[in-house]
Design brief:
Elements (H helix, E strand, L loop, with lengths): L6 H16 L1 H5 L1 H23 L1 H8 L5 H23 L17 H11 L4 H21 L2 H29 L4 H18 L5 H14 L5 H20 L3 H7 L14 H16 L1 H13 L3 H4 L8 H10 L3 H7 L10 H6 L4 H23 L7 H26 L21 H5 L1 H17 L6 H14 L1 H24 L2
Length: 495
């Protein structure tokens, strides 16, 4: 099987570019897209700067160690985390095949197209921008040409391998979601073993890369592996390229979460919310990423930060309620494709709003329970997170649902989360102001009086007051929803 960039492939690239230019979302949110473009450029610039100064950073952190050997070993962490982040966030290139079926274009071309197009992935650009400065500054100035060529070719092959492994994982793991946790566990165990020095994964990785670089003919191994991962992704894509097979093999049973039926209409609405998350790419990838980010507590909860109440409060605001906030800010937009059915069916608006509130409450409590083991590090963490949980249940939940009524942007649930801004509007940024601003304002007030530790008492107290007036606050939300529902429905119909 030969891969060649013929006129058919070029036309596919041109058609894809025209599709993006003419899309309704691009024209409607051009200012937002420009802002995100600037942010993306800023990220790439920062990656390049870090890569440029990576040699100096390593020399400061790892004194009396060989620079090239240490840098190459640390790439073990880079490629491990890169594979996980790609899996959670990298959007696979797709193509609408139906318009091309009557044209003289080979099916193999249509299958090679998304694979080759994935080479332009944001993650690949980040990796190259990160490696090139060190390669030019250190490797090219200290090593012979043949070593430089094999070293860089090996790293480039690893980028390609990660790219197409991610492609295969997404296609295969979508059928077996539990394997995702298995992958995360393997990578986590390897990193843990290396950090505890039980097994020096970085040393093995560095030795392998340097042996290949010093023995030029061995460079054929990573090159062959990169081709193998490409063809593995190709055949997997070919195997799953029939819509009827995908539909038949990926149906999910509808009799799940039956225990919620005992709660009546609210229970049915909760069942729909849960199944919507589990069945669709964007909310599901957001859920998996939120679980992964829970491990960030090991970065923030260290001995030197346990007396810094600002860090403890800020971490407590986001870590336990990360998924609750991320999911909650799109509460109504998740249902944009079938929002009209809620308006036309006999669903009580009061039950609809209460189901959103209860779901946010459940997610907040679940997040608190999952982060509760951090209290082993310090009892302060458990107390502060508990106080913020009350604040989230009583106040943040009301704020988020209220702001959601102003979001009338449609969301395609089938798209992946990374670099996907559908449904994102000014409201998503504005709702962060009270959620972060109120706790931070309270913290600074108590800090002026040199009693910052009383902040979490105040947050807990405010949360309890919000819970006590819950019925009144929910009535405000119900009235707000009735006022905005037709404008929301109109926005959701725009494609």
């Amino acid at each position: 099987m030969r891969i060649k960039l013929n006129i058919g492939m070029i036309n596919l690239l041109i058609h894809h570019w025209k599709e993006k230019q003419r899309s309704f979302f691009w024209k409607k949110s051009i200012i937002l897209n420009i802002v995100f473009g600037i942010v993306g450029f800023y990220i790439l610039l920062n990656v390049f700067v870090i890569g440029f100064f990576s040699d100096q950073i390593i020399l400061k952190l790892y004194k009396n160690k060989d620079l090239l050997e240490t840098y190459t070993g640390l790439l073990f962490y880079y490629f491990s985390l890169d594979l996980i982040i790609r899996f959670l966030y990298q959007k696979l290139p797709t193509i609408s095949i139906q318009p091309y079926l009557t044209l003289p274009i080979k099916k193999s071309t249509l299958l090679h197209y998304p694979l080759l197009k994935s080479g332009l992935s944001f993650f690949n650009i980040v990796a190259i921008l990160f490696f090139i400065p060190f390669f030019i500054k250190v490797v090219c100035t200290t090593q012979p040409f043949l070593f430089c060529f094999t070293w860089f070719t090996t790293l480039l092959s690893l980028i390609i391998i990660n790219n197409f492994l991610n492609f295969s994982f997404k296609k295969y793991f979508s059928k077996y979601p539990l394997l995702i946790l298995f992958l995360l566990t393997i990578v986590g165990v390897l990193i843990f073993l290396d950090k505890t020095k039980n097994v020096s994964c970085t040393a093995y990785f560095s030795n392998t890369i340097l042996i290949i670089a010093n023995t030029p003919f061995l460079v054929i191994i990573p090159i062959v592996l990169s081709f193998l991962t490409y063809y593995m992704a190709y055949f997997l894509l070919k195997k799953n390229s029939y819509i009827e097979d995908t539909y038949r093999n990926n149906r999910i049973k509808t009799d799940s979460f039956l225990f919620l039926k005992q709660f009546g209409e609210i229970g049915d609405l909760l069942r729909i919310e849960i199944k919507m998350i589990l069945r669709n790419k964007r909310p599901k990838s957001m859920f998996y990423m939120s679980i992964l980010l829970l491990f960030y507590g090991f970065i923030f909860y260290q001995n030197k930060t346990l007396d810094n109440y600002m860090i403890l409060i800020f971490t407590g605001l986001f870590l336990p309620s990360l998924f609750a906030i991320n999911h909650g800010q799109f509460f109504f937009s998740w249902e944009s494709s079938f929002f009209d059915s809620y308006l036309t069916n006999k669903i009580a608006i009061s039950n609809y709003i209460k189901s959103k509130y209860l779901f946010y409450l459940i997610l907040s409590i679940l997040g608190y329970v999952l982060t509760l083991p951090y209290a082993i590090i310090s009892y302060k963490i458990g107390i502060i997170n508990g106080a913020i949980l009350l604040f989230n249940i009583g106040i943040s939940s009301i704020i988020i649902i209220f702001f959601c009524t102003y979001n009338a942007e449609r969301i395609n649930l089938g798209k992946i989360q990374f670099m996907n801004y559908e449904g994102t509007g000014l409201g998503q940024f504005l709702l962060l102001v009270p959620i972060i601003g109120i706790p931070m304002l309270i913290y600074y007030i108590f800090k002026i009086f040199n009693i910052p530790q009383y902040t979490y008492y105040a947050l807990g107290g405010i949360g309890i007051i919000g819970i006590a007036f819950n019925k009144y606050l929910l009535q405000i939300l119900i009235k707000q929803f009735k006022k905005r529902k037709y404008k929301m429905a109109l926005g959701f119909r725009q494609k």
